[in-house]
Recover the amino acids of this structure.
């Protein structure tokens, strides 16, 4: 591979990466900045997803019979324990990246559960 080809490949990969990054997160802005800013941004995004999760959870409880309602409550309690333990694992890692990994874990798991619970209302 020539130097010119290698430079072209690196430039193409950089452009593709930038385009991909711009398309992620359903139009949400990325959490850039220093570690503190990124952690705070992830906390804010998690709080937004947590609101959606709680609304969807309440709607799901209202739409189900007694047995399903009790089971959903039990499942939700266990899911919260799992999410918290799973994300704590990342938070106990080395360096400042551990805080970011734990924050992203909380955000992504909360988002996924919110979407799952929202889907329960459509069944």
């Amino acid at each position: 591979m020539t130097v010119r080809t290698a430079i072209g490949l690196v430039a193409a990969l950089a452009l593709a990466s930038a385009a991909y990054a711009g398309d992620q997160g359903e139009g949400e802005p990325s959490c850039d900045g220093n570690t503190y800013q990124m952690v705070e941004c992830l906390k804010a995004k998690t709080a937004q997803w947590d609101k959606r999760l709680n609304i969807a959870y309440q709607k799901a409880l209202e739409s189900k019979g007694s047995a399903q309602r009790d089971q959903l409550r039990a499942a939700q309690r266990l899911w919260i324990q799992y999410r918290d333990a799973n994300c704590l694992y990342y938070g106990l890692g080395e360096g400042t990246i551990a805080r970011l990994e734990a924050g992203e874990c909380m955000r992504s798991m909360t988002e996924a559960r919110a979407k799952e619970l929202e889907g329960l209302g459509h069944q």
Notes: Residues 1-25 have pLDDT under 50 and may be disordered. The first helix runs from residue 3 to 23. The chain has four helices and no strands.
